[in-house]
Amino acid sequence: MEAHEIDYHIHGEEMQYVEIELDPNEGVIAEAGSFMMMDTGVKMETIFGDGSKKDTGVMGKIFGAGKRLLTGESLFMTAFYNEEDYKKKVSFASPYPGKIIAIDLSAIGGKFVCQKDAFLCAAKGVSIGIEFSKKLGRGLFGGEGFIMQKLEGDGMAFVHAGGTTCKKELVPGEELMVDTGCIVGFDHTVDYDIEFVGGIKNTIFGGEGLFFAKLRGPGTVYIQSLPFSRLAGRVLSAASRGGGKDKGEGSILGGLGNLLDGDNRF
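RE: above sequence
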């Protein structure tokens, strides 16, 4: 194997974290900000790009980092190496409530396509790049589904899904319509395109967006019930409607709480 062969354990239910066990000289790469904890003796190093290949030269590193920049991610990633003579552990946490999905790239043909913000961590040697669309419709109307990441290699990779995760096994020719933001990722054998919802009432009053992603099997598709964009939109919407009032708005207890807190607004 080119990628390091790591062992892992996923802990928790709603706010999960993945614990990676590193043998001597093994390593793991992760998005900046996902680190949770590690044993002493693990070396942390900031790398330019994804660091999947050695001796790529300056231009190779710049190209690799530039691909990540197109997806809206940081130019840098963090690598963790076990420099001791015995096993060490390092853990990475979910960014918001949901599930961590373990992807064995060697079992699915060496490639997995996922949302640009779904990647959490992977064995050292896994390449994190971008999946360019060859169809114009995806580029013009795909929204979140346009520029997607691709994870390539033969090691383990871990992606995060918001809310509850649905796993769909599509047979050859089977199609599934999905909100573009609800896609977590899918096997490279799955064909995807963007399709217009249709109908003037759906377009103006539907409230669901104008386009769906159409996925066609064969392959496995992972879908999330709570994309971060939807979660953030609801929070911002509630905050803008609140007008600066607290959760007790409109109730006797809410007014009493304001009074006790020294806030005379009712």
